[in-house]
Write a structure and sequence with these properties.
Layout: E1 4-9, E2 12-19, E3 25-29, H1 31-34, H2 55-63, H3 69-79, H4 86-93, E4 101-104, E5 118-121, H5 124-131, E6 159-164, E7 167-172, E8 179-182, H6 191-204, E9 212-217, E10 221-227, E11 231-233, E12 239-241, E13 243-246, H7 247-250, H8 267-274, H9 280-297, E14 308-311, E15 318-319, H10 352-361, H11 368-396, H12 400-423
Antiparallel strand pairs: 1-2, 1-4, 2-3, 5-7, 6-7, 6-8, 8-10, 9-10, 11-12, 13-14, 14-15
Helix pairs in contact: 6-11, 9-11, 10-11, 11-12
């Protein structure tokens, strides 16, 4: 098994990732990359430097590119490697990751096969077969000459695909995808409708989110499609990658620490990172909007891996469009927030004083921008939620989850409005 992986952005070699034989790995930038005037760092936690990056920071960054939980176990079994062998999984799956990175053995840019980057258009029967896989979408119908090298972080089943003229294709041999496809969740059957609703509502409220859609496959299956903000298609139809990193990567935390109570980043860490971005004030205000929106829609799972930075204009990144917005409050899940508001994680304990403390964490001199955001969103969100439910039902058909989310939003918004009135702030 290879102990070296070449790390590329587009066709340019950025550096080399080396396994040390004991589960660790170290990244070093290539001299040619460091000499380029347009060179960008892989991460704010891996600054451009000639010396090797630390093993701890290297592993934290690259392991964050991989699937988690049962998805990780599945691919470990498929490729006959240990589930905690991050390097071996990167070698197997690193052909199309989040952002612009591709990883491959130095002698074989397209992976273990001999094919070149291409796409396999899926017909309706193959889509149904893909969704009927026992638990994880892993296309068993591909021939031995068709190889996928696709990696998306997180524990939810998802698949990178290319959408072209409403047709879904599977990227082969490390080809770039344009969309992420999520199937119905076995444990929470309405999860795709929930996410599509919350993302559509976020756009209606002026938050920066990518386009999303629901689609029927056969009589039973419904899938969720989200446009990748870290991809663009040029006039020749070529899919180009844009580099990004999530805030676990930017702060040097492992994916195992994505929750604040597990030692992961909190809002104070996230706001500190945004201070190093291209437009710190604008990005901080956008993150304030996200925090308020997530609280009001009942999303307790807004952890640091669900917030990213986009390197679309040079070395200084900006806050990426938001994604993975879900009302977790309608399910039998922990109500504790992934990142606390003013140090409080239980929504029942979050009051105006907590939001004032949150403003201080954000590095905002006055709590006024935060409180104004609360007033604006609590005034507009309930009506926008009802309109979104109506438009989603008209477009995709009725779904009971829409009304449940609308009711939760109305309750949270009314509660916050009462708190603001009683506080006199």
């Amino acid at each position: 098994m290879t102990k070296l992986l070449q790390v590329n952005i587009a066709a340019a070699r950025v550096g080399t990732l080396t396994a040390d034989g004991s589960g660790g790995m170290t990244f070093v930038y290539a001299p040619d990359w460091l000499a380029r005037p347009d060179a960008i760092p892989l991460s704010l936690s891996l600054p451009l430097q000639p010396d090797p990056c630390s093993a701890e920071r290297s592993r934290s960054f690259f392991a964050n590119l991989l699937p988690e939980g049962q998805l990780r176990d599945h691919f470990a079994g498929k490729f006959r490697v240990a589930a905690d062998d991050d390097f071996a999984l990167l070698a197997a799956l690193g052909g199309d990751c989040a952002g612009a990175l591709t990883l491959h053995p130095p002698v074989s840019p397209t992976g273990p096969g001999t094919g070149t980057e291409t796409y396999r258009q899926l017909n309706e029967e193959e889509l149904k077969q893909l969704l009927d896989e026992a638990f994880i979408m892993d296309p068993s119908f591909l021939t031995g000459n068709e190889q996928t090298r696709l990696s998306l972080a997180g524990g939810q089943d998802k698949l990178p695909v290319r959408m072209e003229n409403d047709r879904i294709s599977l990227p082969l041999f490390g080809a770039a995808s344009t969309h992420i496809l999520k199937p119905a969740n076995l444990r929470f059957p309405t999860l795709v409708e929930n996410e599509a609703f919350c993302m559509t509502l976020a756009k209606a409220m002026g938050l920066r989110v990518p386009d999303v859609a629901l689609r029927r496959v056969g009589d039973q299956n419904r899938i969720y499609l989200v446009t990748r903000y870290d991809r663009t298609v040029n006039v020749r139809g070529e899919v180009l990658r844009i580099h990004q990193e999530d805030l676990c990567q930017a702060t040097g935390h492992s994916y195992r620490q994505k929750y604040e109570e597990q030692g992961g980043p909190g809002f104070a860490d996230c706001f500190e990172i945004l201070g190093r971005c291209r437009n710190p004030l604008l990005d901080r205000l956008r993150l304030v909007e996200l925090a308020v929106f997530n609280f009001l829609i009942g999303n307790a799972d807004g952890h640091a891996k669900n917030i990213s930075l986009l390197y679309d204009q040079g070395r200084n990144p900006s806050l990426a469009p938001f994604y993975d917005l879900v009302c977790t409050g309608v399910y039998n899940l922990s109500r504790l927030l992934a990142m606390g508001i003013g140090g409080r994680h239980d929504p029942r304990e979050i009051d105006v004083a907590a939001w004032v403390s949150f403003a201080a964490e954000a590095g905002i001199r006055s709590p006024k921008p935060v409180l104004d955001t609360l007033r604006r969103m609590t005034a507009a969100l309930p009506d926008n939620a009802a309109k979104t439910a109506s438009s989603m039902s008209a477009r995709y058909g009725e779904c009971a989850i829409y009304a449940q989310i609308v009711d939760l939003i109305r309750e949270r918004s009314a509660m916050v409005r009462r708190q603001l009135q009683q506080s006199g702030k």
